[in-house]
User: Fold this.
Amino acid sequence: MLRSYEPGRFGSFATETAPFAMHILSGLSNDHAHQLNAPGAYEWWYADALDAGGEWGVVMILFRGMPMSPDYLAEARSMTGGYALSVYYRGVRIAFAFGGHPLQECRFDVSQPGVSMPSGALECDPEGISMHVDAPCGTDGRRARVNLRMTKDTAPLVPSETHTEGHAWVLASARTRAQVSIEIDEAHGPVVRHDFAGIAYHDHNMGSRAMPMDYHDWYWGRCHGRDATYVFLLTRRSVDNVTWFGRVTSDGRVEELDEVSIKFSRRRISMLGLIHHRRIRLRGRDRSGHVHEVICSNDTVCEDGPFYQRYISSWRINGDESALGTSEYMNVQRLAQPWIRPFLRLPWMVSS
Assistant:
């Protein structure tokens, strides 16, 4: 475990129990399922990749307990498996799939990375990790299939840790070479066949109770630079105020930066009333004393929903390197509001 965060004293979601801290872990040894079964519990496996020019991109997520599902939000004991898939072209989402499966139709491996369900899978072998989703995009005959093959990094193995309470974020394989295959079909036949190579990012989130009990704002982002990947997670205005900024070296080693400072700017209000910031400046110091500074500008909104936005973000790294990345903002508190559930059934999409 890299660090165990002590919860903050304040938050906008009142609970009668003590807040749960976020635990930050790393490595594929912690990428297995944790069988969290309490009402509102969740676990998801996430992967994304962009091509070198940012023209094509994919995001895939496999779930055990779906925090964004309107059915799970209405009845916290109705846990299912599930999937989400987004395909982007020039900053516009051109395919989207989101759905669930009964738990008895899914498999979640508790000893190693491994998830399978009718619409997707995550598999690990000695050479790498494969993740795929093959699912309908609505009810009009449209279908998307994405396969992501990630090469295992060479970082030293990190011991597996037992996690049964609280929230955790696993930087499972945050910088890894990958091959991506995209297929999109309409009812009349194939419309997209595209492959690309790039650098992928894979992480894993989990919690033994619903996210709104401990979080309000959730800012996350990652960027693959020439020599390292920079990642941050910031949970402002939350019972558990997490401030994590770090780098992942070319061999996959995760290093948390110290003396972190953060500056938010470009405050915006979305079409659906999300108050957020579009630019984040982060600065931190590594173990050798070297200072790292990045600016994440969330200029291209590729998904705009009632509780979150996702971006193809522009990054400035240490003043002399520019790169593209992926980032998100979530207002987690909105998931606790009953009014949001009908909106979660709509296929939100925006281009910019």
Q: What stands out?
A: The mean pLDDT is 90.
